[in-house]
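Methods — Computational structure assignment.
A single polypeptide chain was analysed. Its primary sequence is given first, followed by the predicted tertiary structure written as structure tokens.
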Amino acid sequence: MQTAGRQRLEHYAQLNQPLDPKIFIDKLRGNLTDALDTLNAAVPTLPWLAITDRKSGAIKLSPLQPPPEPRNLRRLKKAVLGRHGPIQLIDMLKETALRTGMLTHLTSFSTRETIEQSTLWERMMLVAYALGTNVGIRSVAMSSGYSEDDLRYVARRYFSIDGLRAAAAAIADATFTARQETIWGAGTTTVASDSTHFRAYDQNLFTEWHSRYGGRGVLIYWHVEKGSVAIHAQHLKCTASEVAAMIEGVMRHSTTMKVEGNYVDSHGQSEIGFGITCLLGFELLPRIKQINKAKLYRPDRDATYPALEPATTRAIRWDIIDQNYDMLIKYATAIRVGTATTEAILRRFTRNASHPVYQAMLEVGRAQKTIFIARYLGTATCNTKSKRASTSSKTSTTATTSSASGAPANSPPTAATSKNAPCSPCNSCNQRSSTSCSSKTSSPTRHGPTPLPMRTSAALPHCSGPTSPPTAK
């Protein structure tokens, strides 16, 4: 009994939640009351907000004005391009490997290895380039000096999900460390998350039909911080919940970043999502699509808000939260320690919507969502931050999709990207690529790969240190 009591105290402390449900409820009720009082007093003075009775919804927001472009942005881009010129992706990958030691996280499944380390690390970079740009191992092998079997051997033995996530975390941590605050600003504690649909062929075992994107492919869910550094990526089934993927990414990322807020689009938020994130200790900051129909829950039955009356609804049922508080903490702890996935918990609740714990979680989520909407409507800064965060996430994932096409925009035209080069099957031509269709996971409309430089000493310069790939022989 003493051990169980001690573990209970530890779990509450890890979530930073009080043992007494009264304290938790009083804090949440106080935040809800303050947010609604502030918005009720500010509505008459807000030019972008109107709350009146209308069939389309009580809340009406004026469109946001696009922010002005920074004065020297175009000059800066031109100066960088003039100094460094076009940079190949393989060169970026090489420098990243030299500076971060990311290849040390890719370990073999076997107990021994006979390949020389310099040769092994060069093959690892070639495989990473082939998979990351979706050029394909066969195409990379044609211009690298290695056989296709050599590269596929390294891919099978060294490239695992855990190893790749550890390498990505090493790159993100090195980026955070190298940033200068005078240039990049203070470190952020918020991320933006969104999904990207990569079209894939039917032969791929992961290919699924997605009704929202209207085609076959795979779905990747990203978590990107303010400086466009991805801290977590995960494969997502087309039928899976983006709310669960959002929570899993925040809880399972391996970087040193402390996430305190997560910007998402409408598909990444729900009332149950607000409840879980509140218990886990970080804020859900969504861009709600139909905010005109959103309802504001009252903290008490007697609470009145004249300026918000058309958008308000019933009071939060605090008694349900009080009765099921321990079980709420139990489910939140299961997500935190990884004994149960968020997707499994949501599916369990969905099958039994009348479950008392589910109802309590909904009440917590409704209170937290009302707090967010009240702050969102009353502050122009919150509107701008949410819009910029969503744009940053989509821009980052779009850049990832472009780099996966195998022909980066900043690379000079080559024979492989010309009209006469073989390409994948698409609507514009009937030629077929020599690369196996089953090895592709992105859009089948891309054209041929950018050829790699031959394996020479100039391609991989000599460097010192145990975590840097030596010169290729």
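Note: The radius of gyration is 26 Å.
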